[in-house]
Write a structure and sequence with these properties.
Blueprint lengths: L10 H13 L4 H8 L3 H8 L8 H11 L3 H7 L11 H8 L4 H18 L16 H13 L1
Helix pairs in contact: 2-3, 5-6
């Protein structure tokens, strides 16, 4: 009897975890040592074999790869009532956008942050007016009128 190959269950979560791990320059053994989770667990997670890992494991993983827990919970399909995940994982979990579209949106939000002097630890919407915002908007209005 031949065993049927199972399709990945949560490839998006796995891709996110792999990207974070590799961006930190960590191998499977390093994250296994730091987290206490077996390296094969990490491998299976990154290959999408766990549809919805338990929140206690996601908390450990988030700490190990220095990622917001809300991002991992959202990608795993959990509801997050207190805080939304950051933009990229939210888009991946909510919509099936191509990577290029997500990158374009991130660049746009970075531009808004720079334009309105919004710190990276604050949400872009609704923007909190900075002291320079009214002046900047008035200057923009003058430029358009000219």
């Amino acid at each position: 009897m031949q065993r049927k190959e199972q399709p990945p269950r949560n490839q998006t979560l796995g891709e996110y975890v792999r990207a974070r791990r590799t961006s930190l320059g960590l191998g499977y053994q390093q994250v296994a040592d730091r987290s206490g989770l077996h390296y094969s667990y990490w491998n299976k997670l990154e290959n999408g074999q766990y549809e919805q890992p338990a929140p206690k494991y996601l908390r450990i993983i988030a700490t190990t790869i220095k990622a917001p827990l809300e991002d991992l919970l959202a990608l795993a399909g959990y509801d997050i009532p207190d805080r939304l995940p950051s933009f990229k994982p939210y888009l991946r979990a909510k919509y099936e956008l191509p990577a290029e579209a997500v990158a374009d949106l991130e660049r746009y939000f970075d531009m808004l942050r720079a334009y309105y002097d919004i710190p990276t630890d604050q949400p872009v919407f609704p923007p909190k007016p900075s002291p320079s915002t009214p002046l900047r908007l008035a200057q923009d209005d003058e430029k358009r009128a000219a």
